[in-house]
Specification:
globular; Penicillin V Acylase, Chain A; 351 residues; 8-stranded mixed sheet; alpha+beta; single chain; 6-stranded antiparallel sheet
Amino acid sequence: MHLLVKMSGAPYQRGFQYGNAAKDRIQKVIDEYKVLFEKEAFISWEEAVERAKPYKEQIASYRPDLIEEMQGIADGAGLGFEIILTLNCRSEIMFAKADKNECSVIGIPPEASAEGHTYLAQNWDWWSLGLGTTVVLEVEQAPFAKTLIITEAGLVGGKGINEYGIALSMNAMSVKKGKIGVPLQVILRGCLSCKTLPNAIDAIAKTNRAGSACVGLASSEGLLVMVEYAPEDLDILLSDGEPICHTNHWLSTKMILGQEAKNYSYTSTFTRLDMTRRLVKKEKKFTPDKLFKVLSNHAGHPDGICRHDDESLPIYHRHSSLWSMVIDCNDKILYLTDGNPCQNKPEIYRI
């Protein structure tokens, strides 16, 4: 079962509440990345900590309150600030060299849903070492939007929904070269802090971005886009009233032909996208149950939409779907499994 952490008050206070409540899971995340940095990015934990330090100034210029929050997390968990900073820069450290081949995302506009609601769904495929590290954060952060965030313990950003019905998904993308800028997890928090979807797009577009990602954004007003971004450029994919699916390769012609986009791995991103689109095309009016059914598909096993361990690989190279989510933007409900969606029924969280 995922750990639910309620955070409120001044930035340091809410961080301390988080760190104190999740200290055991944060330590598990640290232990995980000590292995993954070495085995996947080929650097030591100590080198990762050094690489994270330049990002502090960028975070402070984007959301200074999150520096205070990170300090609170560190103190609450009995750790140094630089440890929590390193966890929040894990994408920028890991994906300089590591294989990005995880997560399948589906956006459903009101025209394609049974009740005229907007849905955003995804599997979080990650290194299986991360099992048991997820937290669900309920964050009161005035003057920003109250948010419900799914993430790894110790991180300040992730996927989720806010009180204004803005929902967010994220899947990894590869670029040829990153830079020192605002890390992914902080950008995700910035998006979910916004009152409108256009403001959430601005939270990406007007930012000195460090790396790359595809961020799905949906709203209770029926808005649905996917933002493919790199450090120097981005593009926005539209639903045009149809479901929109994404995996781990660039779909924007602008980005594909640009100077930054890179297809890092071909293992399953194309097959997962093809199968997701075909399954979505077969359905007429989506419900959360139908979305979980799509997210449970095993074509290409173990590298299907619903991903499972390849037991022929060492444990530190194995990937699986650690959780699966469906967000109802209109009812502001997060349906979330603990583990593969084919084996686990979702729990319900409300903002």
